[in-house]
Specification:
about 190 residues, globular, Arp2/3 complex 21 kDa subunit ARPC3, mainly alpha, two-stranded antiparallel ribbon, 2 strands
């Protein structure tokens, strides 16, 4: 990678990190409040960056998302906040999502498929992995201590997060391939 490409990658990464920070703290942009839990749109820049910048970019953007998610939880006074104050729920799954998206993109690069399909699959896998990893982390690490889940409450949380996950999936599968294709037309190198 030459110096110009390196500067482009660092700049792109910085812009996406800034976007993640802005989306976190501007109300109803990165986390759209719907009542008990919010719908996440902040995963979209993470998916785009991780798909375009490989594992290091995926790790950095996932970590940025996780850290901002944790700090955002500090500003809330909701059940969601109590759950996401656990770093195993707020930070670790988001790092893993960035890495999963990066490695999925690298794996799909080996197949001859249309970009729209490839990045749609990447967006779908990334969004679903976020939902599954966060739900798993909630029930593994946040079910005791701050919150004590009973069966009915855990069922309600699962339904709400799963419903939100479907909305997040739909948005990602539409937006990510469109944005990635536009970026790759402007700057085709990876």
């Amino acid at each position: 990678m030459n110096r110009r490409q390196s500067i482009q990658r660092i700049t792109r990464l910085g812009i996406l990190m800034g976007l993640i920070i802005l989306m976190t703290f501007i109300p109803n942009i990165g986390y759209i409040q719907t009542g008990l839990f919010s719908i996440t749109t902040i995963h979209i820049p993470v998916l785009i960056g991780a798909a375009l910048m490989g594992p290091i970019g995926g790790f950095v953007l996932g970590l940025t998302w996780g850290l901002t998610s944790y700090f955002y939880a500090l500003t809330l006074g909701t059940i969601e906040a109590m759950i996401f104050l656990n770093p195993m729920v707020s930070i670790v799954p988001r790092i893993l999502v960035g890495l999963i998206v990066s490695y999925t993109t690298l794996a799909l690069d080996k197949f001859d498929m249309k970009e729209v399909l490839k990045y749609g699959l990447v967006a779908g896998i990334g969004t679903l992995s976020n939902t599954v990893l966060v739900l798993s982390a909630i029930f593994t690490f946040a079910s005791e201590g701050v919150l004590s889940f009973n069966q009915a409450f855990s069922t309600i949380i699962t339904i709400i997060i799963s419903t939100n996950g479907l909305l997040e999936l739909f948005a990602a599968v539409i937006i990510v391939p469109t944005v990635v294709r536009a970026i790759r037309k402007i700057s085709p190198q990876r």
